[in-house]
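testing teh design pipeline on a random one, pls ignore if ur not involved
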Protein backbone atom coordinates (compact mmCIF):
# COMPACT_ATOMS: atom_id res chain seq x y z
CA UNK A 1 0.00 0.00 0.00
CA UNK A 2 1.31 3.44 -0.94
CA UNK A 3 1.79 6.03 1.71
CA UNK A 4 -0.13 9.29 1.11
CA UNK A 5 1.37 12.56 2.27
CA UNK A 6 -1.51 14.58 3.61
CA UNK A 7 0.53 17.27 5.39
CA UNK A 8 0.00 19.74 2.55
CA UNK A 9 -3.75 19.68 3.09
CA UNK A 10 -3.49 20.47 6.77
CA UNK A 11 -0.75 23.12 6.67
CA UNK A 12 -1.76 26.73 6.66
CA UNK A 13 -0.69 28.60 3.57
CA UNK A 14 2.27 30.89 4.13
CA UNK A 15 1.10 34.48 4.09
CA UNK A 16 3.19 36.75 1.97
CA UNK A 17 3.46 40.43 2.69
CA UNK A 18 1.23 42.49 0.55
CA UNK A 19 3.10 45.28 -1.22
CA UNK A 20 2.32 48.57 0.39
CA UNK A 21 0.92 51.01 -2.08
CA UNK A 22 2.46 54.44 -2.20
CA UNK A 23 0.08 57.32 -1.81
CA UNK A 24 -0.83 58.50 -5.25
CA UNK A 25 0.75 61.79 -6.16
CA UNK A 26 -1.43 64.53 -7.44
CA UNK A 27 -0.96 64.70 -11.21
CA UNK A 28 1.19 67.66 -12.14
CA UNK A 29 -0.35 70.19 -14.46
CA UNK A 30 0.85 69.48 -17.99
CA UNK A 31 -1.48 71.61 -20.13
CA UNK A 32 -1.43 75.31 -20.97
CA UNK A 33 -4.70 76.70 -22.29
CA UNK A 34 -4.18 80.47 -22.12
CA UNK A 35 -1.53 83.00 -23.08
CA UNK A 36 0.42 83.98 -19.98
CA UNK A 37 0.28 80.57 -18.31
CA UNK A 38 3.44 78.84 -17.10
CA UNK A 39 4.15 75.21 -16.27
CA UNK A 40 7.22 74.14 -14.32
CA UNK A 41 8.75 70.68 -14.65
CA UNK A 42 11.81 69.26 -12.93
CA UNK A 43 14.26 70.99 -15.31
CA UNK A 44 12.24 73.59 -17.23
CA UNK A 45 9.77 76.42 -16.91
CA UNK A 46 7.68 76.97 -20.07
CA UNK A 47 5.55 80.09 -20.55
CA UNK A 48 3.27 80.89 -23.49
CA UNK A 49 4.01 84.58 -23.88
CA UNK A 50 1.85 85.50 -26.86
CA UNK A 51 -0.44 84.44 -29.69
CA UNK A 52 -0.21 86.82 -32.65
CA UNK A 53 -1.69 86.88 -36.13
CA UNK A 54 0.67 88.96 -38.28
CA UNK A 55 -0.81 90.15 -41.58
CA UNK A 56 2.36 89.69 -43.57
CA UNK A 57 4.12 92.23 -45.77
CA UNK A 58 4.60 92.99 -49.46
CA UNK A 59 6.67 89.84 -49.96
CA UNK A 60 5.33 87.35 -47.43
CA UNK A 61 1.57 86.84 -47.11
CA UNK A 62 -0.58 83.90 -46.09
CA UNK A 63 -2.42 82.02 -48.82
CA UNK A 64 -6.00 83.07 -49.65
CA UNK A 65 -8.32 82.10 -46.78
CA UNK A 66 -5.41 81.53 -44.37
CA UNK A 67 -3.67 83.52 -41.68
CA UNK A 68 -0.30 83.39 -39.98
CA UNK A 69 -0.39 82.36 -36.31
CA UNK A 70 2.67 82.87 -34.12
CA UNK A 71 3.01 81.47 -30.62
CA UNK A 72 5.63 83.21 -28.47
CA UNK A 73 7.30 80.96 -25.92
CA UNK A 74 9.82 81.49 -23.14
CA UNK A 75 11.65 78.36 -22.02
CA UNK A 76 13.80 78.59 -18.91
CA UNK A 77 16.35 75.96 -17.92
CA UNK A 78 15.99 75.74 -14.13
CA UNK A 79 18.45 72.85 -13.83
CA UNK A 80 22.22 72.79 -13.43
CA UNK A 81 22.73 71.06 -16.79
CA UNK A 82 22.91 72.49 -20.34
CA UNK A 83 20.31 71.39 -22.90
CA UNK A 84 19.55 71.78 -26.62
CA UNK A 85 16.22 73.07 -27.96
CA UNK A 86 14.85 72.28 -31.44
CA UNK A 87 11.56 73.62 -32.79
CA UNK A 88 11.45 70.92 -35.45
CA UNK A 89 12.02 67.98 -33.11
CA UNK A 90 10.55 69.02 -29.75
CA UNK A 91 7.32 70.71 -30.83
CA UNK A 92 4.58 68.76 -32.69
CA UNK A 93 1.57 70.81 -33.75
CA UNK A 94 -2.03 69.97 -34.64
CA UNK A 95 -4.70 72.28 -36.04
CA UNK A 96 -8.16 70.88 -35.26
CA UNK A 97 -6.56 67.42 -34.74
CA UNK A 98 -4.64 67.47 -38.06
CA UNK A 99 -0.85 67.39 -37.99
CA UNK A 100 0.75 70.61 -39.28
CA UNK A 101 4.26 71.94 -39.85
CA UNK A 102 5.75 75.29 -39.05
CA UNK A 103 5.58 77.91 -41.79
CA UNK A 104 9.17 79.01 -42.36
CA UNK A 105 8.12 82.09 -44.37
CA UNK A 106 6.12 83.37 -41.39
CA UNK A 107 9.33 83.36 -39.36
CA UNK A 108 10.81 85.99 -41.67
CA UNK A 109 8.16 88.57 -40.69
CA UNK A 110 9.71 89.44 -37.31
CA UNK A 111 13.48 89.25 -37.16
CA UNK A 112 13.50 90.39 -33.50
CA UNK A 113 12.28 87.03 -32.20
CA UNK A 114 13.81 83.86 -33.60
CA UNK A 115 12.71 80.28 -33.64
CA UNK A 116 12.78 77.96 -30.64
CA UNK A 117 16.21 76.59 -31.50
CA UNK A 118 19.58 76.69 -29.80
CA UNK A 119 21.65 75.88 -26.77
CA UNK A 120 20.05 76.50 -23.40
CA UNK A 121 22.64 76.77 -20.64
CA UNK A 122 21.86 76.02 -17.02
CA UNK A 123 19.90 78.85 -15.41
CA UNK A 124 19.29 80.63 -18.75
CA UNK A 125 16.22 81.32 -20.92
CA UNK A 126 15.38 81.16 -24.60
CA UNK A 127 12.61 83.23 -26.21
CA UNK A 128 11.29 82.14 -29.55
CA UNK A 129 8.23 81.66 -31.65
CA UNK A 130 6.49 78.85 -33.44
CA UNK A 131 4.82 80.09 -36.62
CA UNK A 132 2.07 78.40 -38.62
CA UNK A 133 -0.22 79.17 -41.54
CA UNK A 134 -3.75 78.10 -40.65
CA UNK A 135 -7.22 78.49 -42.19
CA UNK A 136 -8.87 81.64 -40.82
CA UNK A 137 -11.65 79.52 -39.29
CA UNK A 138 -9.35 77.24 -37.27
CA UNK A 139 -10.74 76.30 -33.88
CA UNK A 140 -7.90 74.77 -31.86
CA UNK A 141 -4.12 74.77 -32.07
CA UNK A 142 -2.42 72.05 -30.05
CA UNK A 143 1.34 72.01 -29.60
CA UNK A 144 2.93 69.06 -27.83
CA UNK A 145 6.30 69.89 -26.30
CA UNK A 146 8.42 66.78 -25.72
CA UNK A 147 11.42 67.48 -23.48
CA UNK A 148 12.77 63.94 -23.82
CA UNK A 149 13.64 64.24 -27.53
CA UNK A 150 16.86 66.26 -27.37
CA UNK A 151 17.30 67.19 -23.77
CA UNK A 152 17.68 63.64 -22.51
CA UNK A 153 15.62 64.65 -19.52
CA UNK A 154 12.74 62.81 -17.93
CA UNK A 155 10.50 65.87 -17.87
CA UNK A 156 8.02 64.38 -20.33
CA UNK A 157 5.54 66.52 -22.26
CA UNK A 158 3.72 69.78 -21.89
CA UNK A 159 0.66 70.29 -24.07
CA UNK A 160 -0.31 73.76 -25.26
CA UNK A 161 -3.94 73.96 -26.42
CA UNK A 162 -5.10 77.39 -27.63
CA UNK A 163 -8.48 78.37 -29.07
CA UNK A 164 -9.07 80.75 -31.99
CA UNK A 165 -10.82 83.77 -30.54
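output:
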Amino acid sequence: MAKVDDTAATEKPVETEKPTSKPTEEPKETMITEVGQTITTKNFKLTVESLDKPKGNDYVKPSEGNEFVEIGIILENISSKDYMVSSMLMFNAYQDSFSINEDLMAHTLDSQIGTMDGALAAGKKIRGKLAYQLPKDWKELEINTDFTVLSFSSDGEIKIVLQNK
